[in-house]
């Protein structure tokens, strides 16, 4: 397993996801989205696994602006530009991915 957790340092669900993997002694790579961002290839891989709508943090004040962008590529570009718009944690295991706290899915990854 090659687990990556993309999150925000002050996100409660990101901390819960990290604790989930630590408790099970599963190694993971933690990436601070606000500091390092996410590569276009990684974002596209996650989008293919979960869908574009699942990636958007609806609670963010600027999330509604994404609905006005006509093309999916424009929305992805905006998410890369402003990682605060991404819902966290984004947990990747190869081509598999989840957005949010999803232990019921992670338990099947081993």
UniProtKB/TrEMBL annotation:
Q: What class of enzyme is it?
A: oxidoreductase
- List the GO molecular function terms: arsenate reductase (glutaredoxin) activity
Highest taxon in the source lineage: Bacteria
What does the UniProt keyword field contain?
Answer: Oxidoreductase
User: Which SUPFAM superfamilies has this protein been placed in?
Assistant: Thioredoxin-like
Q: Which InterPro entries does the record associate with it? A: Arsenate_reductase-like, Thioredoxin-like_sf
Q: What is its EC number?
A: 1.20.4.1
Pfam families in the cross-refs: ArsC
PROSITE patterns hit by this protein: ARSC
What family does the database annotate?
Belongs to the ArsC family.
Cross-referenced PANTHER family: ARSENATE REDUCTASE, PROTEIN YFFB
Q: What is this protein called?
A: Arsenate reductase
Origin species, per record, is Intestinimonas butyriciproducens
């Amino acid at each position: 397993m090659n687990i990556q957790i993309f999150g925000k340092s002050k996100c409660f669900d990101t901390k819960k996801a990290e604790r989930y993997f630590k408790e099970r002694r599963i190694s993971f790579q933690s990436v601070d989205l606000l500091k390092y961002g996410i590569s276009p290839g990684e974002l596209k891989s996650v989008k293919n696994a979960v869908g574009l709508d699942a990636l958007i943090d609806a609670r963010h004040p600027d999330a509604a602006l994404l609905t006005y962008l006509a093309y999916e590529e424009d929305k992805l570009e905006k998410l890369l530009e402003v990682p605060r718009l991404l819902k966290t944690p984004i947990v990747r295991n190869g081509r598999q991915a989840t957005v949010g706290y999803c232990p019921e899915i992670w338990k099947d990854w081993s």
